[in-house]
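WARN retry 2 of 3 for item q-0093 after timeout on previous attempt; input resubmitted unchanged.
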Amino acid sequence: MSDVIKFKLRKDELVMLALVYLYLMICPFNKVEESFNTQAIHDMIYNTKYLYYYDHISFPGSVPRTFVGALTVALPTGAVSYLSQCPKAITYSLARMVLGLYVVWSFSTFRRAVKKIFGGTTASCLMWITCSQFHFMFYASRTLPNTFGMCCLLLSTAYWINKEWESFLWWSGLGVLVFRSELVILLGPMLLLEMVSGKLKINELITPGLQTAALILVACCSVDSYLWRYTVWPEAMVLYYNTWLNKSSDWGTLPLLWYFYSALPRAMLLALPLSVVGCLTDRRVMNFAAPALLFVALYSLLPHKELRFVLYAVPLLNVAAAYTLSQLWSKGQLAKLVVVGGFAGHLLCCGLFLSASHHNYPGGYALQALHNQAPCSQNTTVYIGNFAAQNGVSRFGEKCESLYGDRRWNYVKTETLDVETIRNFNILLVEPKEAHHYQFTHSVVEKFHVYAGLQFTKEPPFVLTKKKEAIYLMKSKKVKKKVYVKDS
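OK item q-0093 returned
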């Protein structure tokens, strides 16, 4: 068996896994962009018989997404959940732990391949740099298509380094055709480098590439078509929707160079200037940095931008930074002190980012709290407003839900309900600006806050997290008969 495919972690990589799990525990809820995979994992675990009750049937979203990633997480998580009979909230944490393990193992595989080129010191520096960067560690357990794409990228890059082209085709094909089509912009130049250098001929890839693509599409589209109940290739639909139609711009736009002056500096911190130095001192690191920079430059042409879209570039650029750091570490005690000071600065930034993220999921905490307002045995209707639904609410948090049979609790997220209908619900999760509509029928039980920036002070700890009211938990002032509203 090739060393690159061994499923094992070194002791220091277990530290990385522990940090991923720490971030998971501090930020245990999900955002709206994670909701499809989160709800799919939930339904695969808790609803194995009735496809009609799957969340995507009621909330299909703008474009269909693939279930393949959710399935790879739900299978091991569901087995543990079934054997342990743990609560749904714990099951969700287990699902994210499984995904975090996939990412750390993929990174470990990538790191071992890098070690073959640059040596053990650079490989160790690569891991510690990555551990000290907030965004890679934070997203490692988030159920985003980008996270599954990151696993494919890291494994594909490892096989590219080791010149194992069959395995490269499998993982890159899975990443591009199933999870994130834009990875072709990053992985394509890697193959181009090999062809230009004469190490690889295009006719060596055409036949196995087409065979691999066909097998991946048949297998994955079969799964997705069954669950969506019509023939579909989800990632092709996403590519058409976001790129050709440019519909992603509906979620906001940012300046052309935003990835370079905002996203990458925040994601990489001091590793960014170190990567520049690395590119100038050793031509080998340009094999990693050039595809990454080209990817970011081309992806900048799309008006809608989010940091997670270009996070794939960070591990590759970190190779250049790790090489520079390994050289700096050997320059004496003063250089080592500078390195330690840099890591201390990274940890401080991680603390600030983590504090902000912890307060970005008020809907999750509100959903937890509302279950204290009535027993699960009592007929209860819950209305979940749009802000709460997008910032922490998932079906894993619906403690009293019964997927089929006697539904004593009915959770409704439908956005089109009018005020009079909402007034009939027993419990509400609404924004402060909406609360006045229900002041005569409901009372405010608890208020939940969201991150609103940083405040600098002259006294320790010198930086404070500002928060503002985001969600009101409101309870009906009188007991009503059960009102059933189909969540659609």
